[in-house]
From TrEMBL:
UniProt family annotation: Belongs to the bacterial solute-binding protein 3 family.
Listed name of the protein: Cysteine ABC transporter substrate-binding protein
SUPFAM superfamilies assigned: Periplasmic binding protein-like II (SSF53850)
Keyword presence, Transport: yes
Membrane-traversing stretches: none
Keywords: Signal, Transport
Originating organism: Aerococcus loyolae
Low complexity bias spans: 31-44
Region of interest (Disordered), residue spans: 27-48
Signal peptide (UniProt feature, chain positions): 1-20
Amino acid sequence: MIKKKLFALLALFATFTLLLTGCQGSNQSDKGAGQSSQASAGKQAKARTLDEIKESGKIRIGIFADKMPFGYVDDKGQPQGYDVELAKKIGEELLGSADKVEFVPMDAANRAEFLKSSKVDITLANFTVTDERRQQVDFALPYMKVAIGVVSPEKALVKDPADLKDKKLILVKGTTAETYFQKEHPELKNIQKYDAYQEAYDALRDGRGDAFSTDNTEVLAWANKNPGFKVGIDSLGKEDTIAPAVQKGNKELKDFIDNLIVKLGKEGFFTKDYEKTCLPVYGKDVDPKQIVVEGDNLKEYYQAFNYSGE
């Protein structure tokens, strides 16, 4: 049942992508598949230049298909979410229209690989910046702040990692939560890992696990929509940032995104994006400043992200 739901979701997303890309998208997909095979053999496919992207008339941006409110597919088969709004803005600024964006659904574990294989030009799938990931991809300036959270049933609420000692913890492969628990809590042996967020949430809802850990922004949103569950731990580890990523060495595209994020931040774009996509999910109890990075707040990140534009 779980896999049927996931396949149906991705099928809707694939339909939308085909409508966007047409015959050109098919040719690019074929090219991307070949490049993906090349990458799996240990070779990195060449990233497209800005001129090549403009000439093709499409920019390929990877997002989640099952992570509300950041990247998901609605009941009409349309991609929605905080990341999606930024992706559309990139399409408008670079190619003159949001319709020029080719959305590519991805799982947490293949966000870097899709860049290496040039299957996507940009990864915008709620990608948390870490030192390990910096070795694989280049991150642009951040547009969100995030920490790790844990959601569990209210009747058996997990309030501390110590509460997980004799319980089953659910994680999604390739996430910062997986890395955190592997490093900080190796004593926890009863861990279930899934490839997709929907699979993980279904496992928690069905009682196959006692708690689920991922970004606090994600679990807070899910708990608000699912009575009987609550976020007992809303912040683990250090505060991290979420940023767009490009293939390692693609300075031209990274610089374009950096400059655009600064511009959008000054215009208040990300607060408006939050109000459109996140406020209906989080409600007024969550302060947007806990999540949104823009305007004056962005200056503290310039040095860390080697931004020299302003």
